[in-house]
Structures are given as structure tokens and as C-alpha cells.
Amino acid sequence: MAKNSKIRKQSLNIPKSILVTVQILQFISLKLVTLFASRLFMTPLKHKIPKRELEMDQKSRQEKVRIPTISKEVVVYHYGTSKKKILLVHGWSGRGTQLVKIADALLETGYSTISFDAPAHGKSGGKTTLMLEFIATILELEKQFGPFEGAVGHSLGGMSLLNALKQGLKINRLVTIGSGDIVQDIIDDFTYKLRMKHKVSNRIRLYFENRFDTSMDSFSAYLSAKEIEIPVLVIHDNDDDEVPVKCGIHIHKYLKNGKLMITKDLGHRKILGDEQVVESATNFITN
């Protein structure tokens, strides 16, 4: 496929008004387009909860929990009553009920789950967030509701859990599904889909590094993988159009005690409901 055709395909879900705004701002000022793009990068989409997640939503005990380190509140879901608890972490633009199939399977094996709507996601307030806030939330929930036996994370949730382990999260086993890897690659892909000049990508990274006084690439998943001793199952689909399978392969390469599972034809989200994936993730976490 020609590069221009690939761009058009990737941009189908991006409102034309945003693409036009990007082109105008790029012409006027690199500073303006960087600020605009940085705001977009921090703004998830909120989706209506699908029918398949309604039962978990209705049966969960829900509460608002304040995360002191980021001065934000998140909605937490307590699903099941077992003292053996598994932490579930959704991805970008996801919800605390998104891993419902895995949650149900865990309940059947005698576990309960804790999950949450990350800042600016689901029922939690706010309009913007970053992975740093996912990580802060994970560490705070461990303090309030842990210890957790294990954890399962999808997409950005997987990256966040890998980083949380690096920062002191204590669990026995981890499953990542469709996890992203190198932060600069994520920003590059974001700017590419918005048809921005490549140099804007570096400007966005520098904007965040100056704002938060930290290296963004230090949050790359493979760097955390190097320091993790516990067993980790990395699941990734070969046909994931949002997060390339090379990410899962690269993360697995750096794990000391890792296992890799590559699926086919499931993409980035359908994978969460696949029977074999659910069974493999549940067995790995509970055995």
C-alpha cells in the first residue's frame, strides 16, 4: 500500500475538523500545533458502556477514590467478595469493566477483581490524563485495597502495570494484552496519523518532559521489563492495527521470566473477549 493511502486509512476515524486544524496550525506556528497536539494526546474518548459489560457494572460495588499524588478522583469497581484479589487495568479510552470476560473467569476460579476508570475515562471526572496518572492510580489502589495476587492490563494498562512494578508494585504474576512499548514510537504514530510534520513528534515529547520534569522514554515498557523478576505472560495479536505485534515481541525479549502468546485475526480489542485468551490469562494468573 502506498504511504498516502496508508495515511488515509489510518485517519478515517479522526474528525476532518481536527485534521484541518492541524494543517492550519502547522502553517502558522510550530509552537501552536505542538500545544494543540499535546492536548489531543492527553484527551481520551469516552464511549458508552456496551451491553456485554452491563452485568459487571451492575454487580460491582463502586466507589470514588482520591489519588493524592495527582489530586484526582477515580471510580473503583469491586467485583466479587474473595480476599484473593486481581487488579485489572484498562487501556486508553477504555473503562473499568472492559476486561469483563477475564473478570468473570477469575470469579469462577475463586478470585475477585479490582478495576477502575482511569482519570478522564468512564465515570471518572476530568478531560485529560497521561500514563503517569494510570501508574499513580495503580500504586494508590494497592495501598488501599491490596495486596493483589496478580494483575492483567490491556494496551496502556499493560504499559502502566509494567512501570508500576518498576516503581514498587508487589504482585505474583502479570498478564499484558496488546501492550504498547516505546514511548517515542507511540508519539510518532500519533503525529503520523494526524498528518503532522515529523519534527512535531519530538516537540511533543520535549513539551511533556519540560512540563513533568522527567524523561518520557524512561516509561517505555521494555525498560521496565528488564527489571521485573515475576512471571509475565505477554499476549499480542499478529493483526493488531493499533499497537503492532513487534511491541509484544520486544517486551518479551527483555523479560527475565516471560512467556509470549501470539494470536491471529483478533485485533486490538476483540482479543479481550477471545475464549482462548481469557482461558490462558486466567490460568496463568491463578496457577
Automatic annotation (TrEMBL):
Pfam (any one): Abhydrolase_1
Query: What are the transmembrane regions?
Result: 20-42
Q: Which InterPro entries match?
A: AB_hydrolase, AB_hydrolase_1, AB_hydrolase_fold
The record lists the organism as: Flavobacterium arsenatis
Keywords, alphabetical: Membrane, Transmembrane, Transmembrane helix
Q: What is this protein called?
A: Pimeloyl-ACP methyl ester carboxylesterase
Residues covered by the AB hydrolase-1 domain = 86-179
